[in-house]
Amino acid sequence: MLRGRICGEDHDQSLPGPKTVRTYAELVGGPLDSLLLDITGWSADEIETGVALMTEIG
User: Fold this and answer.
1) Nearest to 55 by CA among 37, 42, 41, 40
2) pLDDT digits over 24-51, tens only?
3) Which of 5, 21, 39, 45 is the most buried (most CB within 10 A)?
4) 6 in Cβ contact with 15 (< 8 Å)
5) Separation CA 58–CA 38 (nearest Å)
């Protein structure tokens, strides 16, 4: 049900899925598992280093 959803976007948007002009990384593990994170414009160092995302559900 959540597959293909973008982290931080509302599920009821008219076009909630990924946009072809953007770059995404799939989140793995935790409450955001399988959501897509928009990494358009991130540097190679930022992408390789990784990120910890905080959510209200843990």
Assistant:
1) 37
2) 888 888 888 888 888 999 999 888 887 7
3) 5
4) no
5) 20
